[in-house]
Amino acid sequence: MPWFIESYALMLAHALVLGALLCVKSQKRWQIAEVTLLLNLVIALSLLGMSLAKGDLELSNNWLRASSMSLIVMVLISFIGLIVLRYARRNLAGDRDNARFLLWYLATLLAVSVTISANHLVIFGFSWAAISLSLNQLLLFYPERPRAALAAHKKFLSARLSEALLFGAFALLFNQHNSFDISVILAHYQSTMTITNLDQLVALLIAMVALIKCAQLPLHGWLIQVVEAPTPVSALLHAGIINLGGFLLLLFSPLLSVAPIAQWLLLIVAGLSTVVATLVMMTRISIKVRLAWSTIAQMGLMLLQCALGLYELALLHLIAHSCYKAHAFLASGDAVNHFLRKRYVQ
């Protein structure tokens, strides 16, 4: 079976569950969702295994692409999504709105899957925007909380700014190459060491999008305040969504490698964010707030690695941070209980 057909099957299975969730009894929704995410993980692992066995580093058509990097990220997102879903099933068991949570949770994962697999600039751009819009519904899961509404509003504004910059960069890319095909565009930059001023501008815009997506200073405030959202939402955000800024840079690494202005922007902003966030993190008392500052620091370090051309290390950092941060948020309640038990014994 061609790779792009299997990639379609991966996203089709995820899309079908959204409709199925509306047609089954409430007690069956979580079971269907878990089976669907498990299926996604199995398909993603099989695609990655075929890539390693056949030595095909990249295959694509006009709409989708399958590279070793994108398949690794797809496996990671599927795995994190399944783990967080199993936790959310218990965490939100007594909440009457858990069906709404499940619907937007799966919609977010679907948008992430499409973004990772997209080989068309328009599809990539709209699925990138869909991630933020569906995530915003999760951040407002408890709309009566003022801090949650404020954080969601800040996230909404920063997301619209990053999307405007991203669509601007994609418009310039189309103007330069007369193609929406990402593989064709990247192949051009892989075969040249000199780029135009317009290409430099595109790289600069993409770097700015990554900085905003990764909540680097000074547009970091929303990430500190989204701790008001349910723990599964925080885990998904910190372990899967916020890393997409790094994925964007890894995807367009052939362009970034020959764009010194964008590299310097990443070095300066991400470097300062890493230092400041690390220092502030050590002064925080709240576990979730400390983890949020930790995410800013870790994302800054990942962007620094991209700016220095250490793309394999940045991908490894992305994977390690996702697994660590998912565990940290899902285990945050145990940390509180451990502290209370220790205090009681003393």
Labels describing this entry:
346 residues; mainly alpha; two-stranded antiparallel ribbon; 16 helices; 79% helix; 2% strand
Tell me what the structure shows.
With 346 residues, the protein is mainly α. Helices cover 79% and strands 2% of the residues. It contains 16 helices and 2 strands. The protein has helices at 3-20, 26-54, 68-91, 98-117, 121-139, 146-177, 182-190, 197-213, 221-225, 231-241, 244-251, 253-256, 260-281, 287-307, 311-330, 332-345; strands at 58-60, 65-67. A hairpin with a 4-residue loop joins strand 1 and strand 2 (65-67). The longest helix is centred in the middle third of the chain and has 32 residues, at 146-177.
Shape: globular
Structural class: mainly alpha
Beta fraction: under 5%
Helix share, percent:
over 70%
Strand order of the largest sheet: 1-2
Number of helical stretches of at least 4 residues? 16
Extended strand count = 2
- Stretches where pLDDT is under 50 for at least 5 consecutive residues are none
The run of helices and strands is HHEEHHHHHHHHHHHHHH
Mean pLDDT: 83
Radius of gyration: 20 Å
Largest sheet: 2 strands, antiparallel
Q: Could you tell me how far the N terminus lies from the C terminus, measured between alpha carbons in angstroms?
A: 63 Å
Give the quaternary arrangement of the chains: single chain
